Amino acid sequence: MSNGPSDKAIFIAEVVGTGILILLGDGVVANVALAPRLAPQAYNWLLIAFGWGFAVAMAVYAAGGISGAHINPAVTIAMAVNGDLPWKKVPAYLAGQFVGAFLGAAGVYAVYYEGLKAAGMPNVWCTGPGSIINKAAWGYTLKEAGASYIGSFSITNAFIAEIIATAMLLIGVYAITDRENLGPGSNMAPWLIGMLVGSIGFSLGGTSGYAINPARDLSPRIFGALVGTKGLFDGMYWIGPPVIGAIIGGILGALIYKHAVKPFLPKRGE
């Protein structure tokens, strides 16, 4: 009887999968910031959220048959806490994810390095609090659409947002991959997981930038600092919402699915 993939296979698969995730995900951010081929108005949050969703789908298709393509420490840790992954396998997953994310960031740098240098090495690597414009909702006054930014969401608000968004990620991942639920057929699960990430970006991503993945945020942040992007490790934000908040949210989401959904699914044949 097979005991599943070896630690080496898990590590390599997670390097490849997480590398693809960051190459295509941070790549769409760099494209929006540095290389628009249409008027700038055509490049916005909508494009970024779609780009990240497609990036997740491609990453899961690439590595899913080997490691399950966690490509996210919050997923790996949540599954271990939930009893769905042996703790002895966790180090191979985490090592692959953090290494892969660093290499993916290096790939983005290779593709866009002239634009990055010309722009003063802006942050296309990692997340942070969203801005609050000078008038909310439909009351308008964005300097009558020229937008005047006056501040950011607090670290506390961003922390809460990461917990809730990552919990939604894990609930969705469990639901999509659970054969006892309404799980998709025809190898569509990776595509739907990508659309789940896109939906999280559309609906919950504005406060913190929806890291929902410690490796996605921390490894590119380290790479960005090494190549000269300033301010990436100022203060304690970097370890709070995108790392600790995402891990807490992942565990919470896995436990919600395990205790509030799974027990009430009808067994096959009932």
From TrEMBL:
Membrane topology value: Multi-pass membrane protein
- Drop me one GO molecular function for this one: glycerol channel activity
Q: Which residues form a coiled coil?
A: none
| UniProt keyword annotations, A-Z | Membrane, Transmembrane, Transmembrane helix, Transport
**Pfam families (alphabetical):** MIP
Q: According to its UniProt record, where is this protein located? A: Membrane
Q: Does the keyword Transmembrane apply?
A: yes
Keyword Chloroplast among record annotations: no
Q: Name one GO cellular component term.
A: plasma membrane
Q: What is its main location?
A: membrane
Q: Which InterPro entries match?
A: Aquaporin-like, MIP, MIP/Aquaporin, MIP_CS
Question: Which residues are listed as membrane-spanning?
Answer: 12-33, 45-69, 90-112, 158-177, 189-212, 236-257
Q: Organism's domain of life? A: Archaea
Which family would the database say this protein is a member of? Belongs to the MIP/aquaporin (TC 1.A.8) family.
PANTHER family in the record? AQUAPORIN OR AQUAGLYCEROPORIN RELATED, AQUAPORIN-9
What name does this protein carry? Glycerol uptake facilitator protein
